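ingest -> validate -> predict -> emit
validate: passed (alphabet ok, no gaps, 700 aa)
predict: started
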Amino acid sequence: MKRKTVALLGNPNVGKTSLFNRITKLNQKVGNYPGITVEKREGIAKANQKEYRVIDLPGTYTLYPSSLDEEVVFRMLGDKNSDGHPDLIVVVTEPNSLNRGVVLYQQIREMGLPAIFVINMMDEMEAKGLHVDIAKLEGYLKTKIYSTNARNGKGVDELIKEFDTEVPPYFGSISLPSAYHAALADARKLFPLETEYKTWLCLAQEQVSILSEEQNQKLQDIRAAHGITAQQLQKAEAIIRHDKIQQDLAHFVHKTENKKLSLTDKIDHVLMHPIFGYVIFFGLLFLIFQAIYSWATPIMDFVEENFANLGEWVAATLPEGPLSDLLVNGVLAGIGGIVVFIPQIVILFFFISLMEESGYMSRVVFLMDRWLKPFGLNGKSVIPLISGAACAIPAVMSARNIENPKERLLTMLVTPFMTCSARLPIYIVIIGLVIPDQEVWGFNLQGITLFGMYLLGIIGALLSALVLNKVIKSVRKSFLIFELPTYKMPDWKNVLNTVWEKASGFIFDAGKIILAISIILWVLGSFGPNDRFSDPEKYIVQEKPHLSEEEIADEVSAYKTEYSYLGYLGRGIEPVIRPLGYDWKIGIGLIASFAAREVFVGTVAVVYSLGDDLDVEDEGQRQTLFTRMKSEINRNTGLPTYNFASGISLLLFYAFAMQCMATIGVVKKETGSWKWTLIQAGFMTGLAYFAALIAYQLLK
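emit:
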C-alpha cells in the first residue's frame, strides 16, 4: 500500500523543523532535491496502523518563488507529477505571524490542494499578549485548527492521528483584481488548470517552472497584449489579500497592549546596539574561533595519535610489502585525514545550531548584511568566513544556512581564501627562512608578516567575492526581509540532530573523495617506473661514493621520492613553476601538499633526507630543517632555493592556492557540482600562480 505523503509548509522561524523532528521521531534522512543544492528532509511517521511519508518543505512567505528554496516549494505543490507531491499539506504558523500563516493557507487551498492549519508555539500566546478565538478562526478558514508545542511535544500525537482526515473542498476565494480579469480569462482559455487561482499564479510569474517554454511564451504574450507585468499582478494580490486578512483577523485576534518591554526587546537593546552589538558579536566569533582552533586540538591530536598507533600496529602485524604500505599510508592515512576534522565540524555546528535555535542568528544576519552586501555576500556569510580561519571544511559546510543560492555559492567559493590552521606550519617555516628576526617600531617583523598573511586571506576572499559577484548571474534577487524571532531556549534534540547530520554527511559524502585522492597520492609516491626507485642504494653508491652506510640509508627515502611517479611529476611541472623561483623539489612538495597543505613541510623534510616524521613545533627539528633548507641551492638559478623573492612567492602561492583535497571534497558535496568545484580550484590556483609569479619577478 502506497504511503500517504504529508508536507509541512510554513514561514521561517515558526518551529516547523522542530515539529517535523517530533512527528518523525528523528526517523528521517537528509539529502538534496535532484539537480540543486536545496536541502531535502523527509522522514517516516507511524500512526493509525500506517506509515506516512513526511516532507519538511523549505520555509517560505508566499507561493511566488523569489529564491531557489521557494522555487522548490512551488514546483512540488504545483506539479502533480513531481516526486513528493503531497496528499496533505500541514500549514504551520505561530501566534505572532498568524496573518502570514493565513496567507499561505488560503493560497494553498485556492490552488485546490488539501491542507490543515496548525498553530505552533501556543505557549507563547500569553507571553505576547495574544488572544485568539479559535472557534471563529476555524469558521473563517473552514477547517479545524490544531495547536502544538514542538518543544515539549504537546499536541503532536493528536495532529498525526488527523493525517487521515478527509479535507473538504475549499469554497472560499479571494476576489482577484478586476483590472486583470480579461488577462486572466485569456490565460484560462490557454491553461484550464484545476482552479482559477492556480492559473493566476502562473500568469503572475515571469517564468513558471512547471510549464513548458511554449506555455511560458504564451503567458508572456498575454501579459504583453494587456500591457501588464507579473510584478503588477503579484503586488495587486498582495495588497488585496493583506488588507482583507488584516480586517478579518481583527474580529477574533486581539493583542493586549503591554507598555513594558518584553525580554526579547530588552536583550535586543544590547545585542542590536550599533556599537555594543558588534562588540558582542565579534566576541562570540572569537569564542567560536578559539573553540574550533584550540578546543578541538587535543581531540584531533588524540585521533592522529591513535591512527598513527593503529598504522604502526598494522605495519608490524602484516608482512612488509605494497599491501601493508597501502593499508597504512593509503587507506588508514586517508581515513585519518577524514576523521581528524570531525571535532572541528562538531564544535562549529554546535555553536551555529545554538545561534539558530536561540534566535540570535537572525540578529547576526541583520548586523552583518549591510557590510557584506556590496561584495555579493549575505549577513550569514560572516560565520563561514571567520570559521575558515580555523578550517575551511566545517566553514564551507556552515554556508548551508544561507538561503539565497548565489550568496551561498559565493560564500563557499571564497571561504577557502581565509588563512586556515593548515597553512600555519608552512608560514612558520617560510617566514623563519626569509624574514629577518628583528623588530620594527617595537613589533617583531616575523609576527607582522604572519599577521599580514591572515589579513591577505581576508582581502583575497572579499575581492574575489566582488569579482565573482559580477561574473555569476543570479536568477533571483536577494532582499533582506524577515521578522526577528523571539529569543528562546534551544531545543537540544534539534541541536544534536543538526550536529550529527553535518558530521555524518561529511564522513560519508566528502570522505569518499578524500579517501580516493589519498590513495591516488599514495600510489604516485610509492611506485616508480624504473630500478632507480626499486634499487636506489646502487645508484646512491655510484653517485655519492663518499657516503657512509648510515648516510646512504638516510638518502634512500629522498632518492625513492625523487624517482617515484610523484617525483617525476615534480620534475615534469618544473618548467611551469621555474618562473616562480621553484625547483623540482618544491614541485614535489606542492603536489604532495594537495593531500593537505601542512604535508608540504613533511614532504620537503623527506626530499632533503631529514626523515618524514619532522615536527615543526619541535625547536631542534625545526632548526635542522631551517639549516638544510637555507643551504639548498636551486640548480636552475645557482642561488639559494629559499631566498627572499622565492620565499615571498611561496607564501603568496599558499595564501591563495586551493591545495586541500578535503576542501575540494566538501565543496563538491555542498554545491552538488563538479563544475563549480573545478572552477574554484582553477580560479584559486590561477590567482596563486600569478600572484607568486609577479612577486618573484619583481623581487628577484
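The chain has a mean pLDDT of 82.
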